[in-house]
């Protein structure tokens, strides 16, 4: 009974309509509209809970499916559904948005209702991306996402926001046009825009490679993978705190999600043939970006680079499956790799979100993101210091926090494929600790750096609430990741089976490059 | 039993949470009462558990607490393995921890002086300190009681976290926050190896559970793995795991963090950086004996690293003048002894020395702390002297600790250290002869630096300034009671435990030794009781070397020093280049600072400026933007705005299209 209720539609449109209403009500009564925005965000989160609570983890297909005709002449449908991969990401979205609204409460003074409204609309669109099963609907949400983010950075951003927004927009737009071409090509082959139909569509090798590359351009920019990552540090630096949180916590995950929903199942033969490229780029992200993060002078840039390095683990875990099969002749460990990448995405949502909130806390007080402007913050802000050290440790992958779980799983999986892959991936233990703790040392610890630091006020209740809940989430997944992993694994097991079957026309063999 | 084990682990955690989150409300008394109650309960239960193993033949416990995660068919559990090795570790850890908790009441009583005015961090620092040391006890118990590799790694990193927090406890001191970051990063280098070792185990054994892995290990004795052109799997796994141990147990070249960790308050130097955490590596290798026994190469590596650490780190102790650093280098050296024992397959001897060392080294640190309190936090032994007259309890207990440390016959350290040297003597692994020589001469060095410090601190003329001298007095009972409580086992524990531990194989199935590697059986074969063991030991070179060191130390720092107070400096000056090398600590710190820290930053800057900014952003991203702009600039000229231009273009276009269509 409950399952038949259109929960997904509710979770998508409630925040979008709520956001429009908040914007329409204007800034005249901003206290009221802020409250409305918060209520909408909380209600959306509550509305998304049934997706998890009534989720049938044993079922590998789509759940909460809603399907209606949208543009019949082109076969485009309003087709929604979730599985074990998308459901956790939707919950992450509705969860994080609440804290973005709270974080902007006092500090956004310029047109606060527009700010809140933009984030609510953004939330609905992102849920749409995660739940769309029609390619055009997906593309619609995918591109729509750019607009609120463009506005958020462009209106509430820092001094260099114009450069950052243009770079952000062009980079991501450049990636996605090729995806659109690939989607349309597949429509002509499958006579349907259903993503699930694409999954079973036989495709020749040339077509697969071209489609794979088109998807790669789109998703690699979003993740972002080396070498198309340079938009992210600029976007983060200029974005307001809430924008950075959404960007890091959720938008980056859309790239990772794309690999699982599109690249791997639609083009398994091409993925198997080109997995070396992805693995190489992922490992470069871990090592190269780790060193680059070390020397950043701007806290937000440092965390942005740290995000890129951590997302390297995600793509590494997703694409390690083929190497494992080639090396060991069995797919044991492949599920752990993909699950590890998923856990890493969820965990990174909490940790990077919290780290950007921490920088926001300092920025609101001192209007600087430069590490050199701080020092000894813990002397005047002990609670802030405690949270900063906690999240720094989580970022460095300390066991007991969620940051450890995904990295551990991916290292375990990668070892099966190749010792040296695991060796390079594991350097994150040293590099992530080095860049994170060095920043903590210079910002949080030490004697009071200057008069401004001496005058700092510790966290207010709203900030404690925000960081406290995120810390609890980080700990919960670190101490007991089983519920999260249990929800995802049946879907991922199914995916791992799927990617090993060739989709070349007429072939029922395993993927070509996996044959001995 | 499961509930008792859970209580042992969780009681300190509860104490830590209470003191940490509610320290401001419950005040100092509340915080230390809560944590001491937690650790006290844990210690009492641990001793009870140990007694069950000693007198009631308690069966081993191996069971899960909860399932952490199931992924890809692999089970990750949180669970406990309590056998005799674990019970011994639990009792040692909780007992020393309880003593340190008590001692901290005295040591941290005036901690407010250590913080600048107005620093909010100084407000509840006393409570926070108690919270941390209880949290440490929880983490250490999770480590030693684990029944699987994942939880072992959790405990491993958790003690590292608390160590980080405590070394940097006085966070306004630059040296402290440098030392804690260094400690964490160097340990991470070890953990880097450790996690790869765990990944190898996950791949080949399909399980994280000790029992399953150990049972399956012999099957893989001859497995090769295609790394470095093919090596033995067990050798690779053991060396990777041991790299983790080298970080945590501060073996060369990953030892560099331990001397700097002395920046932390003295109670934690005793608890974490002497008695317990740094011995986690020793414990781990002993626990993994079923794996290490399968690789002679790994054992040989372990033995050589241990012997090198034991000897060369002891030498540095000779030139240190900070009382805590002398003890710190002594700790490094003693950890080397334990490690060497592991390499000789004398795991029981390593664990035995771990236990005796925990007592006498915690004692020495706490005694040093007592001296530091009396000296108003001056730690330079050159400014001390004659303290035996004003601090009788500290003096006697420090003497006991020093005698135990130099393996004076009858003291606890004698039994354990002698057993180690003996075992290495009988070992057949590559490098054992070399190791035996280093460990034997090491006995001389140990005696020399220990009694140099002892005489300079407690004997001779007082050299402190008048103000300090007039205020000298014995420390309060919360400080001296733990000293006495630790002095008792420092004397007697060796005598009473040597027979069960080394001769009668009390550890039993917790340790596995291949018959051909068994170096301790020689000891057992010639066992005629403790007295005979002592007499036998007194006929061997290590004893005479140690006594030689003691005699030389007495001659220089007791006799000659009386006549010439500058003798210490004069000797060091005469030894010119040697002193220089030792004072530079063989250049490890400079090397790391230049090559790893500097190199890492340099590489980062280079990658960032040439890779990200010049190549990607400069050439590709902004370059293509400029190219588009440039092309647009050219094409713009087509848009002249003149109607006739457009008209002509249209006509040409139309003609062109028509041509194409007609032609086709």
Automatic annotation (TrEMBL), chain A:
Annotated NADH:quinone oxidoreductase/Mrp antiporter transmembrane domain residues: 132-428
One example GO MF annotation: ubiquinone binding
Primary location class: membrane
Pfam families: Oxidored_q5_N (PF01059), Proton_antipo_M (PF00361)
Keyword Transmembrane helix: yes
GO cellular component: endomembrane system; membrane
Localization of this protein: Endomembrane system; Membrane
Biological process according to GO: ATP synthesis coupled electron transport; electron transport coupled proton transport
InterPro entries: NADH4_N, NADH_Q_OxRdtase_chainM/4, NADH_UbQ_OxRdtase, ND/Mrp_TM
Keywords: Membrane, NAD, Oxidoreductase, Translocase, Transmembrane, Transmembrane helix
Transmembrane segments: 6-24, 36-55, 85-107, 114-133, 139-156, 168-188, 200-221, 242-260, 272-295, 302-325, 345-363, 384-413, 419-440, 464-481
Annotated ranges, domain NADH:ubiquinone oxidoreductase chain 4 N-terminal: 74-123
Membrane topology: Multi-pass membrane protein
PANTHER family: NADH-UBIQUINONE OXIDOREDUCTASE CHAIN 4 (PTHR43507:SF1)
Protein family (similarity comment): Belongs to the complex I subunit 4 family.
Name of the protein described by the UniProt record: NADH-quinone oxidoreductase subunit M
Organism of provenance: Thiohalocapsa marina
Automatic annotation (TrEMBL), chain B:
Transmembrane segments: 6-24, 36-55, 85-108, 129-146, 152-172, 184-205, 225-247, 268-286, 298-319, 326-348, 354-374, 395-415, 435-457, 477-498, 543-560, 643-663
Main location class: membrane
GO terms of biological process kind: ATP synthesis coupled electron transport; electron transport coupled proton transport
One Pfam family recorded for the sequence: Proton_antipo_N
Domain spans labelled NADH-Ubiquinone oxidoreductase (complex I) chain 5 N-terminal: 68-113
Protein's cellular compartments: Endomembrane system; Membrane
Residue span(s) of domain NADH:quinone oxidoreductase/Mrp antiporter transmembrane: 146-429
Domain of life: Bacteria
Membrane-protein topology: Multi-pass membrane protein
GO cellular component terms, A-Z: endomembrane system; membrane
Keyword Membrane: yes
Entry keywords, A to Z: Membrane, Transmembrane, Transmembrane helix
GO molecular function: NADH dehydrogenase (ubiquinone) activity; NADH dehydrogenase activity
NCBIfam families, per the entry: NDH_I_L, PRK06590.1
Matching PANTHER family: NADH-UBIQUINONE OXIDOREDUCTASE CHAIN 5
Protein name: NADH-quinone oxidoreductase subunit L
The species this protein was found in: Thiohalocapsa marina
Gene (name only): nuoL
């Amino acid at each position: 009974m409950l399952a038949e209720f259109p929960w997904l539609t509710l979770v998508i449109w409630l925040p979008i309509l709520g956001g429009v209403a908040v914007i329409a009500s204007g800034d005249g009564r901003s206290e009221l509209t802020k409250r409305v925005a918060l209520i909408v965000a909380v209600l959306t989160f509550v509305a998304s809970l049934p997706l998890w609570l009534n989720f049938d983890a044993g079922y590998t297909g789509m759940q909460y499916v809603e399907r209606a005709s949208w543009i019949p002449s082109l076969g485009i449908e309003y087709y929604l559904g979730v599985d074990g991969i998308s459901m956790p990401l939707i919950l992450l979205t509705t969860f994080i948005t609440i804290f973005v609204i709270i974080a902007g409460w006092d500090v956004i003074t310029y047109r606060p209702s527009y700010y809140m409204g933009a984030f609510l609309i953004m939330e609905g669109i992102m849920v749409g991306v995660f739940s769309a099963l029609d390619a055009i609907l997906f593309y619609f949400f995918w591109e729509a996402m750019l607009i609120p983010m463009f506005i958020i950075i462009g209106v509430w951003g820092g001094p260099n926001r114009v450069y950052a927004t243009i770079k952000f927009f062009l980079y991501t737009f450049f990636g996605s046009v090729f995806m659109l071409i690939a989607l349309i090509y597949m429509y002509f082959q499958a006579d349907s825009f259903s993503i699930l139909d694409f999954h079973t569509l036989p495709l020749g090798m040339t077509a697969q490679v071209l489609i794979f590359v088109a998807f790669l351009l789109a998703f690699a920019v979003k993740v972002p993978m080396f070498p198309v990552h340079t938009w992210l540090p600029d976007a983060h630096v200029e974005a307001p705190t809430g924008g950075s949180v959404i960007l890091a916590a959720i938008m980056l995950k859309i790239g990772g999600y794309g690999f699982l929903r599109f690249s791997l199942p639609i083009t398994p033969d091409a993925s198997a043939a080109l997995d070396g490229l992805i693995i190489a780029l992922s490992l470069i992200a871990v090592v190269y970006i780790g060193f680059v993060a070390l020397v950043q002078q701007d806290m937000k840039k440092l965390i942005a680079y740290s995000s890129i390095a951590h997302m390297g683990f995600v793509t590494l875990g997703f694409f390690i499956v083929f190497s494992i099969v080639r090396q060991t002749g069995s797919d044991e460990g492949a599920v752990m790799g993909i699950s590890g990448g998923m856990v890493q995405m969820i965990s990174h949502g909490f940790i990077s979100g919290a780290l950007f909130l921490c920088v926001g806390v300092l920025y609101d007080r001192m209007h600087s993101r430069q590490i050199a402007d701080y020092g000894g913050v813990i002397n005047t802000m002990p609670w802030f210091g405690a949270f900063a050290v906690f999240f720094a440790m989580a970022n460095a992958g300390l066991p007991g926090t969620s940051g450890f779980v995904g990295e551990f799983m991916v290292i375990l999986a990668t070892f099966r494929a190749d010792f040296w892959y695991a060796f390079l991936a594991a350097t994150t233990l040293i590099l992530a600790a080095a860049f994170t703790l060095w920043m903590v040392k210079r910002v949080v610890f030490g004697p009071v750096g200057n008069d401004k630091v001496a005058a700092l006020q510790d966290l207010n209740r709203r900030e404690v609430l925000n960081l406290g809940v995120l810390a609890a989430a980080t700990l919960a997944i670190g101490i007991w990741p089983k519920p999260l992993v249990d929800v995802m694994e049946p879907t991922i097991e199914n995916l791992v089976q799927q990617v090993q079957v060739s989709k070349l026309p007429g072939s029922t063999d395993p993927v070509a490059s996996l044959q001995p | 039993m499961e509930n008792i084990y859970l209580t042992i682990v969780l009681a300190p955690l509860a104490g830590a949470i209470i003191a940490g989150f509610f320290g401001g409300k419950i005040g100092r008394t509340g915080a230390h009462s809560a944590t001491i109650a937690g650790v006290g309960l844990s210690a009492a239960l641990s001793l009870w558990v140990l007694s069950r193993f000693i007198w009631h033949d308690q069966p081993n416990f191996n069971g899960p607490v909860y399932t952490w995660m199931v992924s890809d068919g692999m089970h990750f559990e949180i669970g406990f393995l309590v056998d005799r090795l674990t019970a011994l570790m639990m009792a040692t850890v909780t007992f020393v921890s309880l003593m340190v908790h008590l001692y901290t009441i005295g040591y941290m009583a005036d901690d407010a002086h250590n913080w600048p005015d107005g620093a909010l961090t100084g407000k509840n620092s006393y409570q926070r300190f108690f919270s941390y040391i209880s949290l440490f006890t929880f983490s250490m118990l999770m480590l030693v009681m684990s029944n699987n590799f994942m939880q072992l790694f959790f405990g491993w990193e958790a003690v590292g976290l608390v160590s980080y927090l405590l070394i940097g406890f006085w966070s306004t001191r630059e040296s402290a926050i440098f030392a804690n970051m260094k400690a964490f990063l160097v340990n991470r280098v070890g953990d880097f190896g450790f996690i790869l070792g765990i990944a190898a185990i996950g791949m080949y054994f399909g399980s994280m559970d000790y029992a399953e892995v150990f049972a399956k290990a012999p099957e893989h004795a001859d497995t090769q793995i295609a790394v470095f052109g093919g090596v033995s799997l067990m050798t690779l796994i053991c060396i990777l795991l041991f790299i983790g141990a080298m970080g945590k147990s501060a073996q060369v070249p990953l030892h560099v963090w331990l001397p700097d960790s002395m920046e932390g308050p003295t109670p934690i130097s005793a608890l974490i950086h002497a008695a317990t955490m740094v011995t986690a590596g020793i414990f781990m290798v002993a626990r993994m004996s079923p794996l290490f026994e399968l690789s002679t190469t790994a054992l040989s590596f372990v033995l050589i690293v241990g012997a090198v650490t034991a000897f060369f780190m002891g030498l540095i102790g000779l030139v240190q003048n900070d009382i805590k650093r002398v003890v710190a280098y002594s700790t490094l050296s003693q950890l080397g002894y334990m490690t060497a024992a592991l390499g000789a397959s004398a795991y029981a001897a390593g664990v035995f020395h771990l236990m005796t060392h925990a007592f006498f080294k915690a004692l020495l640190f706490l005694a040093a702390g007592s001296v530091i309190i009396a000296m108003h936090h001056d730690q330079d032994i050159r400014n001390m002297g004659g303290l035996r007259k004003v601090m009788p309890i500290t003096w006697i207990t420090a003497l006991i600790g020093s005698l135990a440390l130099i393996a004076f016959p009858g003291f606890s350290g004698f039994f354990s250290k002698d057993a180690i040297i003996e075992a290495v003597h009988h070992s057949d692994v590559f490098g054992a002869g070399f190791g035996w020589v280093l460990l034997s001469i090491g006995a001389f060095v140990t005696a020399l630096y220990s009694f140099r410090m002892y005489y300079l601190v407690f004997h001779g003329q007082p050299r402190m300034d008048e103000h300090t001298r007039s205020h000298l007095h014995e420390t309060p009972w919360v400080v001296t009671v733990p000293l006495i409580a630790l002095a008792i086992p420092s004397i007697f524990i060796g005598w009473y435990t040597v027979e069960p531990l080394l001769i009668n194989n009390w550890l039993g199935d917790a340790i596995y030794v291949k018959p051909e590697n068994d170096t301790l059986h020689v000891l057992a074969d010639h066992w005629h009781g403790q007295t005979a063991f002592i007499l036998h030991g007194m006929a061997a070179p290590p004893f005479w070397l140690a006594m030689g060191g003691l005699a030389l130390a007495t001659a220089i720092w007791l006799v000659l020093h009386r006549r010439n107070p500058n003798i210490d400096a004069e000797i060091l000056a005469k030894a010119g280049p040697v002193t220089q090398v030792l004072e530079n600590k063989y250049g490890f710190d400079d090397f790391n600072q230049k090559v790893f820290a500097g190199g890492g930053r340099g590489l980062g800057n280079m990658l960032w400026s040439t890779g990200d900014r010049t190549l990607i952003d400069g050439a590709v991203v902004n370059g293509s933007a400029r190219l588009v702009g440039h092309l647009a600039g050219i094409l713009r000229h087509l848009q002249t705005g003149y109607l006739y231009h457009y008209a002509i273009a249209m006509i040409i276009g139309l003609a062109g299209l028509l041509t194409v269509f007609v032609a086709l």
